[in-house]
Amino acid sequence: MCRPVIALIFASSVVLAGCGRAAETAPPGAEVDTPPPARTPTVLDPQLQALERAKAVQAQIDAQAEAQRQAIKDAGG
C-alpha cells in the first residue's frame, strides 16, 4: 500500500522538475533580457488608490493642526 504512493510521489516530482528545467533554459540565439510584463490591474486597485489619497489628506490635516498648535503657543496660550 505504501510503495505505490511513494512511487507516485517520486514520479510526480520528477515530472515537475523536468517541466521547470525547460522554462529556465533559453534556446540558442534567443534574447535573454526580456522586460517583465506590464502590471495588470486588480480588484483591489481602487481601494489602494483611495487609501493613498486618505493618507495624503491625513498628512495635510496633521500639518495644519501642528501649525495651529504652534500659532496658539506663539500667541501666549
Can you give the mean pLDDT? 83
Binned, the helix content reads 55-70%
User: Could you say which structural class the secondary elements and strand pairing correspond to?
Assistant: mainly alpha
What string gives the helices and strands in order? Answer: HH
Number of strands: 0
Note the beta-strand portion.
under 5%
Globular, elongated, flat, extended or rod-shaped: what is the shape?
elongated
Unreliable residue stretches: none
Rg (C-alpha, Å): 29 Å
Record the SSE blueprint.
Elements lengths: L1 H23 L20 H30 L3
Label this structure with key terms:
2 helices; mainly alpha; 77 residues
Description:
Helix content is 69%, strand content 0%. By secondary structure, the protein is mostly helical. The chain has a domain at 43-77. The relative contact order is 0.05.
Brief write-up:
This protein has 2 helices and no strands. It is mainly alpha-helical.
